[in-house]
Amino acid sequence: MNLIEKKINLFKTPEDYALAHCVSRDFKMGAGIARQFRKLYPDMASYCLAQKPKVGSAVKYQANNRTIFNLVTKNRYYQKPTYHALEKSLAHMKSQILSSQGITKLAMPLIGCGLDKLVWSKVAQIIKDTFKDTNIEILICRL
What we know:
Layout: E1 2-7, E2 17-24, H1 32-40, H2 44-50, E3 58-63, E4 66-74, H3 83-99, E5 105-108, H4 120-131, E6 137-142
Parallel strand pairs: 1-6, 2-4, 2-5, 5-6
Antiparallel strand pairs: 3-4
C-alpha cells in the first residue's frame, strides 16, 4: 500500500483511480463532497439505495468509466459516524477491490473528517492498517 496526500481536486484525478467517499445509509447526499457526487452522478443514490446497504458496507457504483465506492458509515445524514463503522466499510471496500480485476488506484478526500468530524490522524491510521497488505495506491485529495 502506498498512501499519498496531495493538493488536488478529487474529481480531476485520472479515470484509472476508483473514487471513495462516505455517505449515510439514507443516501441523502445533500452536503459536503457527497453533494458534488450527487450532482455528477445523479443516478447513483437511487442505484445504491436499491442495494439495501447496511452501515459498515461499501456500495460500488460504475459510471462514465469510473468506479465509485460509497462508504456507508451512518444511518442518517444528520448523524455522525463511528471509527468502527468507517473501519468496517473500508474493509468491505478492500474486499471488493481485491476481488475485482483492474483496480490498483484509489482516490478519496479526507474521509469522515469534514462534516462528520472524525480526526484525520486516526482515520489515516485505519486506512493504513486496512490496506497495509495490498499493492493499492491510495491518493488522499486535499483542497
